[in-house]
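__Record contents__

***
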Amino acid sequence: MPVCQHCGTNWTWKQTMKRIMKFGLRMKCPHCCEWQYESTASKRRSGFLGMLPLPLIFILPIFDVSLMMTVFIAAILSVGIMTVYPFFMQLSNEEEPLW
């Protein structure tokens, strides 16, 4: 789970998901109210994890899996990734460049 770099407090899964769903670049710590940013390593990891369901759309039809089943499997995988992502998220005090 993410740890606030200012106060050192662990965020809960629910607090992290609430902050992620706001789609902002910065997140306010629920404990000390300081702004936190997702670290560069965490952004790269989330980009990679977000791309995992895409190859399924091309690979599964080769094995004669229907389009509806392929979309369903990709959706389930996407929900699973979003569910476990807060466990891998890291925070920093300042916004870091992606490169």
